[in-house]
Amino acid sequence: MADKLRIVHCFRSPVGGIFRHVRDLTEAQAAAGHMVGIVCDSTTGGEFEERLFAQMKETLALGIHRTPMQRHVGPGDLASARRTYRIIKELRPDVLHGHGAKGGAYARLFGSLLRVSRSRVARLYSPHGGSLHYDENTATGKMFFALERFMARFTDCLLFVSDYERRTYRRKVGEPPIPNALVYNGLRAAEFEPVIANADQADLLYIGMMRDLKGPDIFIDALAAAGPRLGRALSAVMVGDGDDLPRYHVQVRRLGLEGHVRFLPPMPAREAFALAALVVVPSRAEAMPYIVLEALAGARPMIATAVGGIPEIFGSDSPALIRPDAAELAGKMSQALTDLAAYRELMPDSSGLRARFGADVMAAEIEKAYFAALDS
Predict the structure, then answer these.
(1) Which of 43, 45, 57, 48 is nearest to 269 (CA)?
(2) Helix or strand or coil: residue 226?
(3) Residue 66, Cβ neighbours under 10 Å: how many?
(4) 65: exposed, middle or buried (Cβ count in 10 Å: 0-12, 13-18, 19+)
(5) What gap in Å lies between CA 353 and CA 293, rounded to an integer?
(6) pLDDT tens figures, 277-319
């Protein structure tokens, strides 16, 4: 088998953690001499994501291919699937790596179709949370988990980004009947350099998708509650975009925080970290969020919810972890801002983070999984 592969990454939404994960992987894989391409949705993302695509374009030998993909299952899926399959077939991948629920479904189904007419295609799936966020007791959850069990027969390897994600899969879907591995998200060496804060920094930063799953509403409510505890109005920056953004503008106005909260469009994480003294990740659900890794690698103090794989980064007994609850977050905000220097000492050690969450470690483990899938 040749050492160099034709690798295609398929995913729906080119925003957030999945897009970050794919960018890091493609960069490392292209540097290793593999021919790499991307197939993703054309209807999500904005100017920030377009700039990221432009930066990637020259390194991806198989190109960047964008076509409309629906978030939810619906009548448009059939046309979307046909378009996506044609693109992938023309790329002739050795490895088809699907990310998230939609990308995972496409990669496994289309990889299986390709195997009917040509040599072996390795079909890998990284859930990144995805359908695993659904409640297994609801009709929707039961449907998705039944689909996951069915799709396992078209999968050569499952790649989990956190032990929490792997345990959730086992609990909701069942023990995987196929090879699977835990491979943590990884950061580049330069990202472990400390971020220098701006002189006019705000007190608090939220950065992420503007949707309730990520907890912007919890952040705003906590901001309003923490101010009176400290005897002053707290300032905050909220960076990101999403369908729910207008509701958060309304919430800020309703709580009388207009002069204290700035909303900014998506930007590089390290630029955002410089805007505030304390980073907050108030998510209701996560898999293994890059934003937590990036903030800690940049030596930024932070508060995060103990959901998904986040405790695997901090340690399960870290005092920086809270429940996704506005009152609890307000209390932690007040504590941290009262003595930020002391709070900073509670953050994980940088050298330990680098050893576990380096991009080189991530890329090497995933490449190993590719070759194992092709050899099996």
Answers:
(1) 48
(2) helix
(3) 16
(4) buried
(5) 8
(6) 999 999 999 989 999 999 999 999 999 999 999 999 999 899 9
Which alpha helices (H) appear in the chain, and where do they start and end? 16-31, 47-56, 77-91, 100-117, 139-151, 163-172, 216-230, 245-254, 269-273, 290-297, 310-314, 326-338, 340-344, 350-356, 359-375
Within 8 A by CB and 6+ apart from 187, the residues are 24, 290, 293, 294, 297, 357, 358, 359
How many angstroms separate the most distant Cα atoms in the chain? 70
pLDDT at 2 over 80: no
Tokens for 194, please give them: 């400390």
Average pLDDT over residues 59-80: 86
Cβ atoms of 159 and 363 within 8 Å: the answer is no
pLDDT of residue 74: 65
Q: Is 156 helix (H, G, I), strand (E, B) or coil?
A: coil
| Dist CA 226 CA 230 (whole Å) | 7
305 forms beta bridges with 322
pTM over 0.70: yes
Residue whose structure tokens are 């293994």? 288
Residue recorded with tokens 């956190």: 162
Question: What is the average pLDDT across 176-184?
Answer: 96
Which residues touch 69 (CB under 8 Å, ≥6 apart)?
Answer: 12, 40, 41, 42, 43, 80, 84, 102
Kindly state the tokens that stand for 355.
């050893």
HSE of 327 in the Cβ direction (CA atoms, 13 Å)?
Answer: 0
What's the rounded Cα separation, in Å, for the pair 308 and 330? 21
Per-residue pLDDT tens digits for 239-264: 999 999 999 999 999 999 999 999 99
Q: Which residues of 252-284 are buried (b: 16+ CB within 10 A; e: fewer)?
A: beebebeebbebeebeebbebbebbbbbbbbbb
The structure tokens listed for 74 are 């619906």
Q: Residue 270 corresponds to which amino acid?
A: R
Q: Please compute, for residue 39, the number of CA atoms within 13 A of its CA located in the half-sphere on the CB side.
A: 30
Query: Hey, which residues does 204 pair with through a beta bridge?
Result: 236, 278
The radius of gyration of the chain's CA atoms, rounded to the nearest angstrom, is 21
Question: Helix axis angle, 216-230 relative to 245-254, nearest 10°?
Answer: 20
